[in-house]
Amino acid sequence: MSNDAMASDAMQSDAIPDFQAPATVLLAAPRGYCAGVDRAVQIVQVALRTYGPPVYVRKQIVHNLHVVRGLEGEGAVFVGELHEVPEGATVVFSAHGVAPEVHAEARARGLRVVDATCPLVTKVHQEARKFAASGYDIVLVGHEGHEEVVGTMGHAPLAVHLVGDADEARAVEVPDPGKVAYLTQTTLSVDETTGIVGALRDRFPALAGPRSDDICYATQNRQTAVKALAAECDLILVIGAGNSSNSKRLVEVARDHGCASHLIPDASAVDPAWFEGVGTVGVTSGASAPEWLVDQLVAALRERGATEVREVEVVDEDVHFALPGALRRDAEATSQP
Q1: Which one, of 138, 131, 143, lies nearest residue 96 by Cα?
Q2: pLDDT at residue 1 above 60?
Q3: Which pLDDT belongs to residue 213?
Q4: Percent of the chain beyond pLDDT 90?
Q5: Which residue out of 72, 81, 147, 148 is catalytically annotated?
Q6: Which one-letter DSSP state was computed for residue 200?
Q7: Which of 71, 227, 293, 294 qualifies as a FRET site for 63, CA 20 to 30 Å off?
């Protein structure tokens, strides 16, 4: 039995409230795991098989407690900071990325580091270092305190100015308005970020930026899919964690396009009152939510009266990221007879 199936079975169906489901359920495609999340989860699992438990993980590997609990069951130990990791142990850095000083601390403590930073976040780190080295002040569009933002700021701490909305973009002060660049968190609302960057361009006509969008392909695709659902649904349920930036953005996008929407960690959090007067419900999931959570919700909707379930595909998504080279080589060596 797969880990997802075991996790699904572990959540009892009687924990899901009773309700009268709408007749039609539309599933967004794409939804759920992005390539960076899939890679990060695989990294922890491969590290456990290769080096043996315990493998320590700094912060949540991805923002989903169901994923964290599943990996804990396989032998992963999640910690807040590196001082909680025994010297010489194996530690995995989360998909959200870390500042350089975290790597330096790990080296000083003799830890074996497996870096699960999403390659698209690594791209933003590289851009931050490049712009800072060229003398630019960097306006980073993102959410204060989010782990990805903290990590990115650590790569150019003297150059970065964080803004969270258009008002802050219009108020930000820099020493040289002629030498400003912008970067963004990878999990933001595409539409909102466009407005913020527009406000920056109004203030700084020579504004430089990344060669390609920092908002990741998966965030953009899932938001596009939600827009398509919003045109056909009375309600959209987004499965994802409360600390998942990309999941919260999906709710905001649905509401901005005139459709009621709620974020739920799993099917047990459904409120029966949401379905009053609803004929069609859309279902999607954030980039760190496993597919079994969607399967569980759809099964509950079928059991409670849904007669049509169909997928609405707006983008054919086929992106994969390779495991880190050192981990891949170690895994291959340990698997040899």
Answers
A1: 143
A2: no
A3: 87
A4: 93
A5: 148
A6: H
A7: 227
